[in-house]
Design brief:
The protein is mostly helical. Helices cover 43% and strands 5% of the residues. Helix 1 crosses helix 3. The protein is globular, with a radius of gyration of 12 Å.
Length: 75
């Protein structure tokens, strides 16, 4: 099971958007990279500050939101 603690919400970082590990990496940007066709390996090669589990956690975050899980359970 992916570690959802890797997706964080902090009103002082990226205007409160869900981010990766309190970094200025919005989850939506990771979605954009995946949606553009980039593989996880390519994303990690281009952005070494990210880890494989970060990408997986972002995808799990999207899955939970799409499933209708209450937001308090997601981030």
């Amino acid at each position: 099971m992916p570690d959802l603690h890797r997706t964080t919400v902090d009103r002082d970082i990226c205007h409160g958007k869900p981010c990766v590990r309190h970094m200025r990496w919005p989850v939506e940007v990771v979605f954009d990279l995946v949606a553009s066709g980039m593989s996880t390996d390519h994303i990690l090669a281009d952005h070494p500050e990210l880890e494989r589990d970060d990408v997986i956690a972002c995808l799990e975050y999207a899955r939970l939101l799409a499933s209708g899980e209450p937001a308090r359970h997601v981030a």
